Queue: 2 jobs
Job 1
Amino acid sequence: MEGLTGRTAVAQEPQQVLTPDGELVGEPPLDLDDTRRLYRAMVAARLYDRKGSALQRQGRLATYPPFEGQEAAQVGSAVALRADDWMVATYRDAAAMWFHGYPWELLLLQRMGDERGGAPPEGVNVLPPSITVGAHLLHAVGLAWAERLQGRDRIAIAYFGDGATSEGDFHEALNFAGVYRLPVVFLCENNQYAISTPRERQTAAPSIAVRAEGYGFPGVLVDGNDLFAVYRATAEAVARARSGGGPTLVEALTYRIGPHTTADDPRRYRSEAEVEEWRRRDPVERVRRYLERAEAWDPGWQAQVEAEEGAAIEAAVERAEAVPPMEPEELLGAMFASPTPQLLEQARELRAALEEAGERP
Amino acid sequence: MEGLTGRTAVAQEPQQVLTPDGELVGEPPLDLDDTRRLYRAMVAARLYDRKGSALQRQGRLATYPPFEGQEAAQVGSAVALRADDWMVATYRDAAAMWFHGYPWELLLLQRMGDERGGAPPEGVNVLPPSITVGAHLLHAVGLAWAERLQGRDRIAIAYFGDGATSEGDFHEALNFAGVYRLPVVFLCENNQYAISTPRERQTAAPSIAVRAEGYGFPGVLVDGNDLFAVYRATAEAVARARSGGGPTLVEALTYRIGPHTTADDPRRYRSEAEVEEWRRRDPVERVRRYLERAEAWDPGWQAQVEAEEGAAIEAAVERAEAVPPMEPEELLGAMFASPTPQLLEQARELRAALEEAGERP
Amino acid sequence: MAVLNMVQALNQALAQAMEADPRVMVLGEDVGRAGGVFRVTDGLLERFGEDRVVDTPVAESGIVGAAFGLAVGGMRPVAEIQFMGFSYPAFDQVVSHVSRIRNRSRHRFTAPLVIRIPYGAGIGAAEHHSESSEVIYAHTPGLKVVVPSRPYDAKGLLLSAIADPDPVVFLEPIRSYRAVREEVPEEPYRVPIGRARVAREGTDATLVAWGAMMREALGAAEALQAEGVSVEVVDLRSLVPLDVETVVASVRKTGRAVVVHEAPRTAGFAGELVAIIQERALYALEAPVVRVTGWDTVVPLKRGEHHYLPSVGRVVAGVRRALAG
Amino acid sequence: MAVLNMVQALNQALAQAMEADPRVMVLGEDVGRAGGVFRVTDGLLERFGEDRVVDTPVAESGIVGAAFGLAVGGMRPVAEIQFMGFSYPAFDQVVSHVSRIRNRSRHRFTAPLVIRIPYGAGIGAAEHHSESSEVIYAHTPGLKVVVPSRPYDAKGLLLSAIADPDPVVFLEPIRSYRAVREEVPEEPYRVPIGRARVAREGTDATLVAWGAMMREALGAAEALQAEGVSVEVVDLRSLVPLDVETVVASVRKTGRAVVVHEAPRTAGFAGELVAIIQERALYALEAPVVRVTGWDTVVPLKRGEHHYLPSVGRVVAGVRRALAG
Ligand SMILES: Cc1ncc(C[n+]2csc(CCOP(=O)(O)OP(=O)(O)O)c2C)c(N)n1
Ligand SMILES: Cc1ncc(C[n+]2csc(CCOP(=O)(O)OP(=O)(O)O)c2C)c(N)n1
Ligand SMILES: [Mg+2]
Ligand SMILES: [Mg+2]
């Protein structure tokens, strides 16, 4: 009936370039060298992820939110950025952040409970990982806007999960981006769960991507475990943003293989069979098979990559753990450019309490 | 391209039954008797609206938000409800609220600055008008949910403007309604402006209605100045809700002929020509022409309606103005079922201050 | 009598309230299948079904706004916000609507709902997981604000909160969830909202605390006892309504007072207590009321958290300051 | 020198800041074409164009969240929230992000933005248009909170706020917007954030107030003068950082203090002042510090509003109570 909005004209099948078996079903958007580079990055990311969980079990990290299964969604999108583009991502996006320049060491340092991990090196335009769900989409909107107002062509990308799409800030962010046609890419890693809540209880929408129309810009649904598909869609979105074409919502269908965090027990809300099914669509193995077929992978290289990346991660752990704790004045000293009289007094009070307690000041 | 969401399959032309000239272009969903009843209600509403602005100019109301031009959107939708259905509406929805049982007298009393205007009679399931923009959509969601949980078949309707659709709560409300398939109707009176901000700067979406798909339920776009089209769409939505079919988003395209409130100067942001164009689509005159054609209207009846409804409104004003002010204890006495010790003490303090000041306690 | 920790006591209260009244329901993020991130709602879904134990989308304003409508519509919702740091997106619903509908409608509509919020630091959590912003709720007219410090009160206060005709913000000290176990009667009972509890009697100074800080308060009292200083410890239990009599009576007796909270100092709830104490008992005060609080900073992450939270040592020092005058 | 009201002074400050620094921009609901519902941004769109004077969708979290990103990205946004009652949907962005990014990133990223919020009662407005919830911002670490009471300070404080390297919540007393006119220098100048002002000298008692309540404070001082009582009036101007010295010095001199605010009493900012006064000057106090405040209710609508707001009479009575001890 006229006036009644119906289903979109376009099928909701996710874009795919590489099948789970590593076979091409489309044009590969990256050459073999680049693919090897990204494969290596995904292997490194997985090593880091395993290390994170292991450190947590040993009590060396507080909690840790594993991203196993989401490596292609993160690396495949991050590689589409220019080095100086803004990235605003979540606690689960270590791979994307690292790929965009945020050192493992600092990601670890923050997870060890040290605020200094929140300060990436100058020139790395990545905000510290967002712990709140949803709010940071607006930050990407503002950053993209700031770039345009200052006459630069940097864009901003926001990473977020399926759960985040239910927050009011998701809506306000996409709506602002649409109204001002801002150079921003919204990258939803739909990993099927928000803690225990499955995607179909998060929203009755047929997809997240379909929502883009309600903000007046394109949405794309891709196989998030397909490095090529993620890269292609993100690269298109980035190009659109950089050339003044406005925002894009990219939904990458993926899966969180591990628990929500090391404190979570996923057996309470999903079956082992479901996890197994997704393991068969593993994003790293998929690229390995592709490379192997193309004779661009062999076990020797794999061993070398693992050794080198593993060593780099070990070194990062060591450096992070070697960082001495902050003195009280430094701990209390970052609320303002210069502390208020109240904060100065409180730092003195803390120092006095420590001295009284006989702790080394 | 596969995976890329496109425009919806359905054209974004608003549904219409009655043209601005009062000619039918579809099946009339109401018989002549009902149409006369609704015409009378719209005439009453317009008299009330004019009275509201006049009272404000005389300093007898604080501010007043006129709804002229939106009578069909309000009355045509409210008539689709059952008497015991819930209504949650805004400061601009006096016509809908009154039609659903909220007395003029109380609407006026609240606008005069007396909280007792916020208490509709027992059995009238209408919340006091929402002053905040957006939040109340969630209240309708919760009310609809409460009804279903208690095994009743009442539904809830939320009225809101185009501006409200940009608030995060709009999104969270529609998403909850979709997830739980709640018996709720979202009635957007898109009157083209949120104070000074025109609809096209509110969102880049092609319509508000199109957003419904992103929540997994139908959206409908109607000519909001067409009593029949509004009624038909709302009646369908109400029937769907009541029968367990879940929510609907109805977008009624209309126009606010007057200022945002009596404190606003619309010449700052829109042209007189634009207003004139919308005056020609007047929702009340449209039905009058239709009735006249059907020989169901004559000037004598018009005069009688205006006299009777005008007298009722005058009487309501008198009653509201005759309400004596609240005593301090009553004024401070509605924060809790029984006041806290703090509030009791504060009421005593106020009483003492008044006595000291020589005011009649 | 069963010996329970606070999580178990709260779980029992919820189950008993749901058993007794079909209008009581629970909603929030991960409260169903997962039983809540702290397991407070564990087993409720299995027992009461999906209609009454509802996993919601990740949307705090949605949770509270919908719970508001549910309450106005006749239900008795108990909404869970996962951590206090995530209560802010719902702040508008709480402040503008939940707390006000009774006043706005002159008792015609009411919102008898409970908002359960785990709060507080001390577990080395990520940012936003350690907040203690009780004062923003205490300052909001129309809300009751309750903070148990031990399993017994947790159960009794939660049952009171659910039965209350008005909205209650129910703050649960994360650090105390499993730290203390004590005997908790099996049958339902209520601890009245608005009554403080003298947790320990003493004569030389009064310590006022609530929630997780009760541990430091009692620890300090214990430590000072060894030095021959007798400290009375008042557990507020409710911030609103505040039990002024119990606090003032204690200070009148001891002449010295220390207020402890983990929230930042500036404009924290201690200010209210100091104001009231000096309004009612200035001439009994032998020294300024001392505030031992968190600093005016974000709660530091794990490595610095112990520098932020009032410790037994800092509370002891605070009492000494009060004694010295 | 031009004689301006506060709206004009603020408008001038905005125009001068935008003139001087291309990074300064204004965004909010109806700030552009309409010039703001109070006309504070009047004429800026015409002068500085759509890029720098931005009408936004009706979305407060969006306004503040986007302004945060703009600030981190190098701009100097001045965001307007239309009324304080509509600042709550943005509360999460303010509390969780605006106030914290510097600390979270150890100075690597900063959010130098200003959030202008008209606040306060006294104009008989609809519900939500009369709020005075400054304490929720004052309690939030990482924010500066500023409240001018007169045109001169409004201009100078706004220029300081825009230049400040940290986020500033800038509260504008609606009732004072057009009530007072005074000479305001044409050239840009700054009133430092964190300094109170002795608005009237006196010896018998100290009245502390800010924003719109300065009128009642000064009115009460005037009325008491007639009876031979000499009242010193301190205009705080900044709540954070608080100018403790000025307040304490005055109370040390007079020995009696009254704090006035229109916010509800419980956990209002007066508590902070009382706590500090008795911490620093207990032995100088000859009587309890008196609080003259709004009640623990929603601000009543027009017909009852005068019963809520502290009046000159109530402030005078408060001073008398402080004098009586
Ligand atoms: C505003 C807010 N609400 C709630 C939480 C608690 N929480 C942390 S992660 C999470 C689920 C997020 O799910 P999703 O967005 O899908 O991301 P994922 O964890 O799956 O990567 C929740 C509810 C939070 N961090 N922030
Ligand atoms: C949360 C909130 N933000 C801002 C306002 C101020 N305000 C009042 S009405 C209005 C415009 C609303 O526009 P729309 O939703 O289109 O309704 P209309 O007034 O056109 O009927 C605004 C911004 C408010 N009342 N509530
Ligand atoms: Mg997820
Ligand atoms: Mg509108």
Job 2
Amino acid sequence: MARLKVRISFPDRCKGCGLCAHFCPKEALVVGRNRNVQGYRVVEVVAYEKCTGCGICYLMCPDVVLEVK
Amino acid sequence: MARLKVRISFPDRCKGCGLCAHFCPKEALVVGRNRNVQGYRVVEVVAYEKCTGCGICYLMCPDVVLEVK
Amino acid sequence: MSEKSQKVKDYRFPRVLRDRPFHYCPGCHHGIAHRLLAEVIEELGVRDRAYGVASIGCSCFLYYYFDVDICEAPHGRACAAATGAKRARPELVVFTYQGDGDFAAIGLTESLHAAARGERITAIMINNTVYGMTGGQLSPTTLPGQRTTTTPEGRDPRVYGYPMKVAEMLAEFPGVAFCARVAVNKPKRVLEAREALRKAFLAQIEDRGFGYVEFLSACPVNWRLDPIKAAEKVDELAETFPIKVFKDEI
Amino acid sequence: MSEKSQKVKDYRFPRVLRDRPFHYCPGCHHGIAHRLLAEVIEELGVRDRAYGVASIGCSCFLYYYFDVDICEAPHGRACAAATGAKRARPELVVFTYQGDGDFAAIGLTESLHAAARGERITAIMINNTVYGMTGGQLSPTTLPGQRTTTTPEGRDPRVYGYPMKVAEMLAEFPGVAFCARVAVNKPKRVLEAREALRKAFLAQIEDRGFGYVEFLSACPVNWRLDPIKAAEKVDELAETFPIKVFKDEI
Amino acid sequence: MKPILVKGSEAIALGALAAGCRCYFGYPITPQNEIPELLARELPKRGGVFLQAESELAAANMLLGAASTGVRAMTSSSSPGISLMAEAFSYMAALELPAVVVNVARGGPGLGGIEASQGDYFQATKGAGHGDYHFLVLSPASIQEAYELTARAFDLAEKYRQPVMILTDALLGQMKEPLILRKIKPRKYPKDWALTGAKGRPGRVLRSLFLGPGELRSRNELLQKKYRAMRREVRVESYLLEGAELVVSAFGSLARIVKEAVNLAREKGYPVGFLRPITLFPFPEREFRKLAEAGVRFLVVELNCGQMVEDVRLSICGSTEVRSLPFPPSDLPAPEDIYREIKRCLRSPRR
Amino acid sequence: MKPILVKGSEAIALGALAAGCRCYFGYPITPQNEIPELLARELPKRGGVFLQAESELAAANMLLGAASTGVRAMTSSSSPGISLMAEAFSYMAALELPAVVVNVARGGPGLGGIEASQGDYFQATKGAGHGDYHFLVLSPASIQEAYELTARAFDLAEKYRQPVMILTDALLGQMKEPLILRKIKPRKYPKDWALTGAKGRPGRVLRSLFLGPGELRSRNELLQKKYRAMRREVRVESYLLEGAELVVSAFGSLARIVKEAVNLAREKGYPVGFLRPITLFPFPEREFRKLAEAGVRFLVVELNCGQMVEDVRLSICGSTEVRSLPFPPSDLPAPEDIYREIKRCLRSPRR
Amino acid sequence: MKFEVILAGFGGQGILFAGNLLAQAGMEAGLQVTFLPVYGPEMRGGTCNCTVVLSDREIASPVVTRPKALLIMNRPSFEKFVPCLVRGGLAVVNRSLIPEECAVEFPGRRFLFVPADDLAEEEGHPGLGNMAALGALVAASGVVPPEKVLSGLKGLLPPERKHLFEPNRKVFRRGYEFVERNSSTAVRR
Amino acid sequence: MKFEVILAGFGGQGILFAGNLLAQAGMEAGLQVTFLPVYGPEMRGGTCNCTVVLSDREIASPVVTRPKALLIMNRPSFEKFVPCLVRGGLAVVNRSLIPEECAVEFPGRRFLFVPADDLAEEEGHPGLGNMAALGALVAASGVVPPEKVLSGLKGLLPPERKHLFEPNRKVFRRGYEFVERNSSTAVRR
Ligand SMILES: Cc1ncc(C[n+]2csc(CCOP(=O)(O)OP(=O)(O)O)c2C)c(N)n1
Ligand SMILES: Cc1ncc(C[n+]2csc(CCOP(=O)(O)OP(=O)(O)O)c2C)c(N)n1
Ligand code: SF4
Ligand code: SF4
Ligand code: SF4
Ligand code: SF4
Ligand code: SF4
Ligand code: SF4
Ligand SMILES: [Mg+2]
Ligand SMILES: [Mg+2]
């Protein structure tokens, strides 16, 4: 199952709340400076290689921005 | 306290339900044939001498017909 | 039970009651509850600052019988009206007198929230397992299998669930200071009921919280039983609705 | 927890959700609860016979997000509307999605009676201890001392009593088949919440009774905390509102 | 067909059964308990749902839920209970739900009494709840009509996707009269809005919150259009209009007493006619206007403090005189009371 | 006195405080939450009672209880919440309780929206609940007036032993304007009916159930008499009536926009005047009738589908033309929209 | 033909049943009928009355203020309704509870005093005074054939109360026969 | 004199605060004022706007469909409101989020592009772009003296937020001065 990795599938849904980044055990995510159509800062994957595909970020994201696949 | 005895103080309140007579331990009361202004058969004391003034009839009467004094 | 209410004494027509015959059916326990309420108001000496809320049900004519200030509340809203009166004038001794339909069906929200807030009021609920006034329909406290005019085949728990145990619910609220279920179908129980009622008033008088007494009460007419059989049937009710002091912080 | 929901798997946007961003504030747990609900509907394969009741509160736009049949109910009446729908068409899988104000304040009667009757519906209550939609007023579940816009000095138990424990009340009804309080402020709890939700649906699908899940839910905006602090504060809520399966007859 | 002797309330319940009503939700209240009590016996036998709700609020919202799934459903109550349903009615109208609501009205305001009253006319016709919405309101005057109009109410509700109210009162609700249980054939209307599970289609929504620009206005315009379309359902009973100089108008059961008074007056040679609105909303404006244009004057008799008289006045727009003869609830007027007023009207000079 | 900048809702709360309101009960709803939120801060400081109820039903009945003890008390809500209070209102009117009720109305029906709307005019004036009862209804058009009328409402409520409604809307409720906190001197009225404990007297009763022969009729006649007496409280704002051939009428905050349109029209030389009912019940019938008798025509502008226009028509009884210009809720009309219609009216031939 | 009768007495005296039965009988006899009960807000105590109209034409109003006949089972009802009776009207009165002297105040009415409760008690059914009085009313007025009352009775009794048919019939007969037997003396004017 | 301005942006950009402050300043300057917020049904997200009218005569309507001025903080608001601006009207626009090119479609309006968010950020208060834009609006329109804005600010901040006075003042000044400094070039027609 190592092939599973985080994807920012729906960046325009993101509200930059930071919950995913906070809970990611690998510190693979961060809320960046770019804004999406809603005007929110958007999450970014800063360490794709560290991602274990554990799904925690998916579980914690209130806006269904991320997928792990 | 032996002087306490049942009185039918408010016969016109009586509805002839018979609860007093049923619960009187001395069988001192009975619902008679006479009707009051409401049209109900009224309670009567049939054994005044047996009454111990225990107050049970007062306690059980839903219409506050009886007094014990 | 307190010294006072146990001693041998004479029994006289309570002065708080007006001299007007009750309109209740023969053998209806509403009358006993009325008398006890009058006695307790008298005993506690609060007639002059009593404020009663009459609810909608067989007891809606409360004001004809009690010589205290009384306001009528819409069906189910007695506890809300009582809350308003008590908050407006905390010196009043405020009580409601409600049926099971009034308190636990249409008025459940108002009843539970008043209790949860710990309103300093005394609520009396006459649980006769039916809607007496409107002709004997199902109530939240109707027993399983009991026939009513709207459950002609008897209450089916699959359709209506099981009877609602109001005293048990209320006892869980920290705001409730006294909570008991009583019956008046036997002389001894009448005395216990009186004592419970006294404490339910003390709950507010001593500023401890909400006071609640639930009367298991016979409705001979809608139970289609004579008064004596109806009184006996209350024992059957007590199997589902235990007669008990659930909470006593007085 | 079932085999199925624990296994390592990919996580994809649930098909029951529509492709429309949630209107919730950043970090609001409503969104997590939505996703779980969508996942469970998908997993149980009941999308085609699902009937949702949207309540009045922050979640009133439920119908924008779920691709199932949805009806709006007046504030507090979701359980009554759900009862009507389920009784009319028992083949539907009927759920409500309500706030603490909706479920436990204005709608308490409808909520408790639906549970007491054992309606075959699933009720979801998002307990964020405030009225989110209207700007953060007091709710029946507000913690003692918690400041809200209508309790500027904090909830005073002398005035408002103590928080209402809804799950605990519901668990007492024989008609309730599943009753749990969950939280979604930690990954493990999210999984547990999902499982609870699944069982709350099974309660009706397997015709056992009323299913209930209460979510302790962060409202960063009205708590005036950032999303991460708000998520942490849910642990504090859990001291008053234990996270627990109160009843599981599935 | 052999008639049966039933109360008005029972006739309403029988009308609902005849129209294929599948669900009833209600809360007891005098003087209409015969409706739930009959349906509690009969509906389950026919595979329908009878549910006593915990309150009128719950009943109205159960009705909302059931109606949203496209089944025929109904509630009934009496004045105070109807007041409690006001919010739900406004929602049902906004959601365009077909449902039947029966008000067997009693004396008010407040707890009032349980005698016949027409004090809820405004509540029924102008909208008890908030916002611009209306029931289609039908008011029967006989037990046979109570049966037929109730059955018809279910068709109309579906035809217009719209709550329909039967407004009657304790007099008709409690009296008995022979009823012929005429067979009813319920009409069929498309239900492509009903929430029946989204199998094979996208999820459907029934909502009343409209925040987008102009959305709420559109919803209101749609409703108003419907209300105008409903005018074709207007019904009246007219009687002895030929040669009438004064038309006495009343609705519901009171109209029977009024009719008797009109008979009395005609027997004495007074030129009096009778017009009974059967639909209270939409109001039979045209029928009144036509008479007014012919110079007829009106006497409006009501069991309240004067409510329908406003709709009569609005209909004829000042063109002739409209007198109000209100009887606030307590005892019912006798035909003679109305007859006296008829004479007085006819004797008084035209304004 | 230095003005302060406050919302209409806040002005209402401040008016209540100024009038000596002792108790507030309410349940949150947009767009009037500023009322409870201000009172939650201020009432306890002054020894008063602020209590957030568990629902509007509870709030209305707490109000009933508090009012029964003779203290000044109030509740506030918005459209759907007001609908839920209908039953309690009917009781309060029947029990003759003085109390103040504020409706900061929003768009309907159903959940509708939260924009300004006047869709609750019928509900407010014709009686939302069952039976023949009425609020005395006041409708302010400015923040200063919101303050003053709210304070006055408490006096009127006690003067007539009667619930008084402030009917306003989201526009006035949410806008800010300078307010001068003029000192208010509450009037005193006898309270020999209040339930304050029966010390030294027999117990008093407040009830609305009247079963004795004629009792309920008497209660209704008493209420009707009171409603007639209330006519002396009628207030209007009139503007530019001199020489007006067309009078544009509107109430509440919309009247401001209408007034601007009238100004526009007058500037262009159109003979237009303005009449704003401040009391909606009793309705200023006489004021309209007088103008109609002088041949003036009317244009009635409303943020609904046309409700007050009925009262205007009833007032003038067909003597001149009354046009309706309804704006169902969504966006507010601009003065220009109304100006255009004014021109159209004046150009069209008189009917 | 139009026959308007008010039946009145205590709650529990079977007033509504008797009125209902009369209406049912009228309907079965092919007449137009209305039956209008007046009921208290509660089920309990108090007086109770109902109005029955039988006619061969459409009945406009079921409300009757000046009845052509009365069936009076107790004293308060006597006092309330006898003054409303039209001149020449018939009042069937339960003599078991109301003394004949009461009638002297009301000249010009036809009074028929029937010991209704006693007749019922004699038949062993003390609760059925209503049927005795109804029997007398039907006999004295002739408004419906007595067989129609009996067939109406069959229709009205629900299956679980079918056993009450015989007692009701017997007491009805007693009342009916009481009039037949005393026809000359019974009616006082 | 009658000055009608609509302020618009994202929720959270301080739109209502700025509008309120402008109205307060107007009132303190002795003008008639109205302030009308447009609020969502919920507190969350979405756009937000308000209307302020300042006048030396009674203000009939607080509703403005064709404003004389705009304060625009984000792109969606630009698109929504600029078309409503009267010919010759002034639009103060947050250049930090809206590129100047947007203005080309709207000839005949006076555009004042201010890097509001950047100015605020430079002052170390990234959340206070609203104050920079307001400073620019006040400077460019001259509708109220800047001191009145500052005294209004004092009045508006509740005791527990008094510490926010300085940051707000500073950023307001920056916006004000930005216009003074660039007055000739800043306004594009
Ligand atoms: C709003 C409203 N709904 C219904 C009624 C009718 N109603 C009167 S009393 C009652 C219930 C009475 O039952 P309960 O409260 O148990 O009192 P009981 O008569 O049994 O003592 C009902 C439903 C009413 N008056 N008002
Ligand atoms: C009858 C009625 N009363 C009040 C409101 C206003 N209102 C809308 S949502 C809400 C409460 C929201 O709180 P909650 O149910 O806890 O949901 P949350 O927004 O916190 O998720 C209220 C009071 C309404 N829409 N209708
Ligand atoms: S899947 Fe796990 S490791 Fe990868 S980004 Fe998400 S939380 Fe981090
Ligand atoms: S949790 Fe979701 S919404 Fe929040 S920052 Fe991460 S991806 Fe964005
Ligand atoms: S006092 Fe006791 S003994 Fe005497 S009559 Fe009453 S119950 Fe019987
Ligand atoms: S208990 Fe009371 S009412 Fe009943 S018979 Fe005895 S005295 Fe009469
Ligand atoms: S109906 Fe029942 S509760 Fe009501 S008075 Fe009669 S016996 Fe008592
Ligand atoms: S107000 Fe609270 S509950 Fe509502 S969307 Fe925002 S964070 Fe969520
Ligand atoms: Mg009961
Ligand atoms: Mg909440």
